[in-house]
Amino acid sequence: MDINDLLAHLNRGEAVEGGSELHQVMIDLSQKALKLTAKLNGQYHTPEEVKPCLACEYCASHDGQCVRKDAMNTWYEKLIEADMIVFVTPLYYYGMSAQIKAVIDRFHAYNAKLVGNKKSMLLATSYGADDWTMKALEKNYESILSFMNWNDAGKLFATGCPVREVIEQTNFPNQAYILGKSL
Ligand SMILES: Cc1cc2nc3c(=O)[nH]c(=O)nc-3n(C[C@H](O)[C@H](O)[C@H](O)COP(=O)(O)O)c2cc1C
User: In the beta sheet, which residues pair with residue 95?
Assistant: First the structure.
């Protein structure tokens, strides 16, 4: 007996009896489905993923080495060398997205090597377009810059843009181009 027998049985509207051969087919299939789901979930974790800071303070006693071994280890050197850090994020509940916040929190291990002598920019999109829509994000960005001792080189807030197709119809991409060219 296999999946075809089970489907034919179910299509006839017949119940599957507990302990029957068909019941065993159902159990085997659901186990296979679980394994496949676990495999797919595992693959969802891409090599580029940056996991959240554990606040374990391993870095404090290990010369700034982070205990987590993920994509952030390749970013640290690039971040330290960079003249400029550009934060690009959609507005999520009036702050940065969780993905970029995870990267910023992981600055913690290498903070001493990251502070000072850098420029920074903020590019953000949002659905809302009220005069206060970007206020909290802007304040957050400015506070990070004060703490890191980095200098703001420009901010661009593409408000009223729920999806890519909308922003492409606006002047915001051109403004981003001009901002980049102004450096
Ligand atoms: C989880 C989530 C939270 C959001 N929170 C806000 C919000 O607080 N304010 C707002 O105006 N738009 C909010 N939005 C809308 C996005 O900021 C907006 O669609 C953005 O332009 C998406 O950019 P993207 O196409 O790069 O993902 C939210 C969207 C999502 C998916």
Answer: 92
Residue of 89, 93, 97 to test ligand 1 pocket, by largest number of atoms within 8 Å of CB: 93
What tokens does 73 get?
């280890």
Ligand 1, atom 31: closest residue by C-alpha: 92
Read off the pTM.
0.79
The full DSSP string for 76-141 is HHHHHH-SEEEEEEE-BTTB--HHHHHHHHGGGGGHHHHSSS-EEEEEEE-S--STTTTHHHHHHH
Distance of CA 122 from the midpoint of ligand 1 (Å): 16
Render pLDDT for 37-72 as a digit per residue (tens, 0 to 9): 877 776 667 778 899 999 999 999 998 899 998 999
Tokens representing 165? Answer: 């197709």
Q: Closest residue (by CA) to atom 4 of ligand 1?
A: 92
In angstroms, the Cα distances linking 183 to 142, 151, 152, 176, 178 are 19, 12, 11, 12, 9
